[in-house]
Design goal:
alpha/beta, binds magnesium ion, 385 residues, binds NADPH dihydro-nicotinamide-adenine-dinucleotide phosphate
Length: 385
């Protein structure tokens, strides 16, 4: 039996992970499940899986969680510190699928235990990738990428030496506004932005896909996971989302990983690794798909891609600032406070205020994150005044 914990269990990736686990309940023992505010969803999951503990991120919801779990035998916990404690409880396999930099501390705590961490929470790696990779190597933890592109690259590398890699190609669907002009994008609503053509995902990453900041964050994520040098990591728009990414070796042989756009495929890869497991996912029907298209990304219509590459090149805390400003701007867009094009504009404005300092510890990253959030708020005040 493998012991598992899921951080962000009530989200899109968390639900997909639970779906796989619940298809073979005798193979897994659930240690911890966590959420931020969805008390009922979390309590229901914890009861159904017989989890040892259920953690709600927001302190003030402790009482509600305790009531919802009454008589279940599941231990209720609440608050940021409880998330970190649960991550340190030492499950064999931990899914890190909290959204945003809020996932950083628990993910670091899980890495320090030295077991297996399946990483969906890209914002933590973008903000503190160097520190996370160091923590994994110090503890001997196995970090398995779940983001579909990085999982594809991991599969294409199959243990090969990075010295033999000529180029990594991250594929991008281009999101719902791939063919839209800037003028059209200016008028796009949150509902239009979250309507992704291929993938069903949480609201934040769906907006990131629409601005293509998601691919920018993934570029930074890839640079940490597969350190071949930023100039060897390219982005290629591939609207069908069938090829999830590619690795070209120096002999000019290219390997690609293909599959239906269903997150349960990369999650299953990380759950069964180094074996494989059956999934209920659709087999790939290339005859039905018929054709695969490719195009170069348009940095003028999608400035977030340029900003992310510049932040990656600057290094230090710059990616954490990019990420924090983006989190604030995306939340404001989803709340209807700013327009779609304002997102990248706010990120750029915040980035322009800082020079890169190298983070020595998680607290340096969190301090930069905090400052960037304040500045993003100020830029927004000016915008909406
Ligand atoms: P969702 O918004 O669907 O779910 C987020 C989860 O995190 C929920 O369980 C939520 O709890 C919890 N959460 C949110 N804020 C906090 C907080 N401050 N503290 C603790 N927990 C919190 O996100 P997704 O599942 O879409 O994405 C999760 C991560 O995986 C993101 O980093 C995303 O970029 C990445 N990812 C997602 C993919 C996808 O297909 N969805 C694909 C590749 C990567 P509650 O329900 O209570 O709000
Ligand atoms: Mg992805």
């Amino acid at each position: 039996m493998k012991s598992v914990s899921i951080f962000g269990a009530t989200g899109s990736v968390g639900l997909s992970t639970l779906d796989l686990i619940q298809r073979d309940p005798h193979a897994y023992r659930v240690i911890a499940l966590t959420a931020n505010s969805d008390v009922d969803g979390l309590a229901e999951q914890a009861r159904a899986t017989g989890a040892q503990m259920a953690v709600i991120g927001q302190d003030h919801l402790y009482g509600a969680l305790k009531d919802a779990l009454a008589g279940s035998g599941v231990e209720p916990m609440a608050g940021e510190g409880a998330l970190v404690d649960a991550a340190g409880a030492g499950a064999d396999w931990t899914m890190a699928s909290i959204v945003g930099c809020a996932g950083l501390k628990p993910t670091m705590a899980a890495l320090k235990v030295g077991k297996t961490v399946a990483l969906a929470n890209k914002e933590s790696l973008v903000s503190a990738g160097g520190l996370m990779m160091e923590a994994a190597s110090a503890s001997g933890a196995t970090l398995l990428p779940v983001d579909s592109e990085h999982n594809a690259i991991f599969q294409c590398l199959a243990g090969s030496s990075l010295d033999d890699v000529a180029r990594i190609t991250l594929t991008a669907s281009g999101g719902p506004f791939r063919t839209r002009s800037r003028a059209e994008m200016a008028a796009m609503t949150p509902a239009q932005a979250v309507a992704h053509p291929n993938w069903s995902m949480g609201a934040k990453i769906s907006v990131d896909s629409a601005t293509m900041m998601n691919k920018g964050l993934e570029l930074i994520e890839a640079a940490h996971l597969f350190p071949v040098g930023l100039d060897r990591i390219e982005i290629l728009v591939h609207p069908q989302s069938v090829i999830h990414s590619m690795v070209e070796y120096r002999d000019r042989s290219t390997l690609a990983q293909l599959g239906s756009p269903d997150m349960r495929i990369p999650i299953a890869h990380a759950l069964a690794w180094p074996r494989r497991m059956a999934t209920p996912c659709q087999p790939l029907d290339l005859a039905r798909i018929g054709r695969l298209d490719f195009e170069a990304p348009d940095l003028d219509r999608f400035p977030a891609l340029r900003l992310a590459r510049e932040a990656a090149q600057a290094g230090g805390v710059t990616p954490a600032i990019l990420n924090a400003a983006n989190e604030v701007a995306v939340a404001a867009f989803l709340a209807g406070r700013i327009g779609f094009l304002d997102i990248a504009m706010i990120v750029e404005d915040v980035l322009n205020r800082y020079s890169a300092a190298t983070p020595c510890a998680i607290d340096d990253v969190l301090a930069a994150d905090g400052r960037a959030r304040v500045h993003a708020g100020e830029v927004m005040e000016r915008l909406t005044a």
